[in-house]
Amino acid sequence: MDKSEFIWMDGVFTPWDDAKVHVLTHTLHYGNGAIEGTKAYKTEDGRCAIFKLNEHTQRLLNSSKMTLMDVPFTLDELNKAQVELLQKNKLFDGAYIRPLVYLGYGVMGLYHKECPVQVSVSAWKWGAYLGEEGLKKGVRVKISSFTRTPNTSGMGKAKAVANYLNSQMAKYEAVEAGYDEALLRDDQGFIAEASGACFFIVRDGVLISPPSDNTLESITQATVIDLAKDMGIEVVRRRITRDEVYIADEAFFTGTAAEVTPIREVDARIIGCGSRGAMTEKLQTAYFDAVAGRNPKYIKHLTYVN
Ligand code: PMP
Description:
Blueprint: E1 6-9, E2 12-15, H1 26-30, E3 33-35, E4 38-42, E5 48-51, H2 53-66, H3 75-88, E6 94-103, E7 117-124, H4 132-137, E8 139-147, H5 163-176, E9 181-185, E10 191-194, E11 198-203, E12 206-209, H6 219-230, E13 235-237, H7 242-246, E14 250-255, E15 259-266, E16 269-270, H8 278-291, E17 302-304
Parallel strand pairs: 8-9, 8-15, 12-13
Antiparallel strand pairs: 1-2, 1-7, 3-6, 4-5, 4-6, 5-17, 6-7, 9-10, 11-12, 11-14, 14-15, 15-16
Bound molecules: 4'-deoxy-4'-aminopyridoxal-5'-phosphate.
4'-deoxy-4'-aminopyridoxal-5'-phosphate binds next to helix 6 and strand 14.
């Protein structure tokens, strides 16, 4: 991993190697924490900007509210911390930003009301999540034997640390089986999302993505839907079954880290042309234009850091 100089810890810019916690940190034991994954890009005019910063920080606060953590910083303070962190680390060529809300040291046992709620923000250079090659040629996907945790026992709309045990198991299983990524179904058997990204298919020129019934409310999914509508593409949010995925004309993932990653194969079925499909390519280009300030309509989503 590409180290940076500083990590923001509860308001203090701390040298990277000193950004440590006690082994009795509550979150380490019981798994209640919330994260974000936010990205900054070098833009058209040479400056660096964070894409949809406000949406990401708001989701961090929402996730923390859902998981009963009272964050001791405001939205504005957390936004400012992320901007200043990139400035302090001189990350002007783009960066991945990882805010974390966690329960600190001082209380053991499950009841966490008296536990201190702490926040860190880290940022570093991170390349394409599913590889540069994946962005061009597409990735190979396995439908997971794990389902998303049902809504009766989990909170899939929280970007909760605890939810990533399920994602981690699914990802590991897929990679060990020779695939790049896992696609998880909900407990009814309908396609939900990948281990860390949302899912789209294209059929007969229509762009289809599952409803957010058992997924994270994805910021990239919303951006891609807006971009598609701008292009006059028909967009439908509806349930998708496993067999329909196999006969899709195109399929792709969206996520802040995954960006727009084409899918070329699912469970040994070749999807469409077996490479990046035409609509996927159009939307991928549009996405990179939006985050890099090349689309005037989306400039309002950029927070410049220099
Ligand atoms: N689902 C999961 C489980 C994720 O971890 C992510 C990545 N944050 C996404 C979907 C995509 O969300 P976003 O577009 O907001 O990054």
